[in-house]
Write a structure and sequence with these properties.
The chain is mainly alpha-helical. Helix content is 60%, strand content 8%. A two-stranded parallel sheet has the order 1-2.
Length: 129
């Protein structure tokens, strides 16, 4: 909670100190599909990731009056080494290729594979004016 929520609030507060006086800027916060769906991660993580979109909505109502945009992304699981390791612990004994297939099946883009670069490109689009 300290990093996921307090860190996001502190970072947003610092950024707005620079952005509001010039009436320009874009802040992008990262949540997780775990915060939207629930039950996909440990309780503290899920609660923290659920909290972030709410804070973003609240802050957006104030910042938009000052020319500053704030958005939140909540990506689905992507088969990074960390996620593969975590999912493999749940499905012990399942081959790595099958674990990757399971992870790819959790997203909304049926038949497509979401990779880190896809999320990064989405962030760039949200950050542009």
């Amino acid at each position: 909670m300290r990093i996921n929520v307090r860190g996001m609030v502190a970072g947003t507060k610092r950024a707005t100190r620079v952005m509001v006086p010039v009436a320009s800027g874009s802040i992008l916060c990262t949540s997780s599909i775990s915060g939207i769906m629930g039950g996909l991660g440990p309780h503290p993580y899920t609660i923290a990731k659920f909290t972030i979109p709410g804070i973003v909505k609240y802050v957006a109502s104030e910042l938009c009056q000052n020319g500053v945009r704030i958005n939140c992304i909540s990506p689905a699981p992507i088969p990074t080494p960390m996620v593969i390791s975590q999912i493999a612990q749940i499905y012990q004994g399942v081959p790595k290729e099958k674990v990757i297939e399971i992870i790819n099946g959790l997203g909304e883009l049926k038949g497509e594979k979401c990779e880190e670069i896809d999320v990064a490109k989405g962030c760039i689009v949200l950050g542009l004016r």
